[in-house]
Design brief:
With 289 residues, the protein is of the alpha/beta class. The chain has 2 domains: 172 residues, HUPs (Rossmann fold, 3-Layer(aba) Sandwich); 95 residues, Pantoate--beta-alanine Ligase, Chain: A,domain 2. The chain is built from 9 helices and 9 strands. Strand 2, helix 2 and strand 3 form a beta-alpha-beta unit. Helix 8 runs antiparallel to helix 9. The longest helix has 16 residues.
Length: 289
């Protein structure tokens, strides 16, 4: 456990702290979060500690990535608990910017990423990646880390951030962290706390169905048939609706339809369970020749 953790709330403060580290020849790894932290976030902190001398986490619930009717106001704010977790895991700094400093009354700039940010999530949340791109750009500009760590659970988001950083020539290494799962395979998420016992049983079927779909495609099953069967299996398992089950190329996220896979792919899923929207993904290997 770290003896202390430095809580910084100002832009000037975070810039000064990073410059101090840099002056001592120390590297920094940054883990941006929206709080309500769990072991999935802590796995990112642990990876960050392996990458750099100093670890900085941020807590900021970003309003620009919530669409009207989504749970911005209901999103859990647990700052005291979050800071304690970060301290116990050995983070050096937690940056908690004041909301008014992120988007002042004169803010008028938007950032839109094409390519990997199109389709999948944006078919259901059209402005989501615009909000993500904007807040990530602002945070990366303020913290200016050597590394920034993002989880693979939000696979399209990770691809979008990589595209953003490359296109805007940001001198930052974006690192993807493997998905942290519970003992039943359910991807850890702040929203899992909304489930009761029966809801958890249904939610945990997602990983089972997804893995089965990936396995069958790797054995040479037709992509469209495997995807269609998985959608039906999710609904039969108790999911109320399925936003998408799609197979994409792992890097460009271009659509892969029909036939048998002849290269690696990524299976991406979004489905609703007991009022909670779950997203997950899984690598798919091509059939051995």
């Amino acid at each position: 456990m770290a003896e202390t953790i430095n809580i910084i709330r100002s832009e000037r403060g975070i810039r000064g702290q990073v410059w101090e580290y840099r002056g001592h020849g120390e590297t920094t790894a940054f883990v941006p979060t929206m709080g309500a932290l769990h072991d999935g976030h802590m796995s990112l902190i642990r990876l960050a500690k392996k990458k750099a001398d100093r670890v900085i986490a941020s807590i900021y619930v970003n309003p620009t990535q919530f669409a009207p009717g989504e749970d911005f106001d209901a999103y859990p704010r647990t700052e005291k608990h979050d800071v304690a977790l970060l301290k116990a895991e050995g983070a050096d700094v937690v940056y908690i910017p004041k909301p008014s400093s992120m988007y002042n009354v004169h803010h008028a700039t938007k950032i839109k990423v094409g390519g990997v940010a199109e389709g999948l999530e944006t078919d259901h949340r059209p402005t989501f990646f615009d909000g993500v791109a904007l807040v990530v750009t602002k945070l990366l500009n303020r913290v200016a880390p050597d590394y920034a760590i993002f989880g693979e659970k939000d696979y399209q988001q990770l691809a979008t951030i990589r595209r953003l950083v490359e296109d805007l020539d940001m001198p930052i290494n974006i690192v993807g962290a493997k998905i942290a799962r519970d003992e039943h395979g359910l991807a850890l998420s702040s929203r899992n706390k909304y489930f009761d016992t029966e809801g958890l049983k249904v939610a945990r079927r997602l990983n089972e169905i997804m893995r089965s779909c990936a396995l069958q495609m790797s054995k040479g099953e037709n992509v469209d048939l495997a995807v269609d069967r998985s959608k039906k299996a999710l609904l039969a398992a108790g999911f109320s609706s399925v936003d998408y089950v799609e197979v994409r190329s792992p890097n460009s996220l271009t659509v892969l339809e029909g036939g048998v896979l002849n290269g690696p792919a990524r299976l991406l899923v979004a489905a609703h369970c007991r009022g909670v929207r779950l997203i997950d993904n899984f690598p798919v290997k091509a059939k051995s020749k």
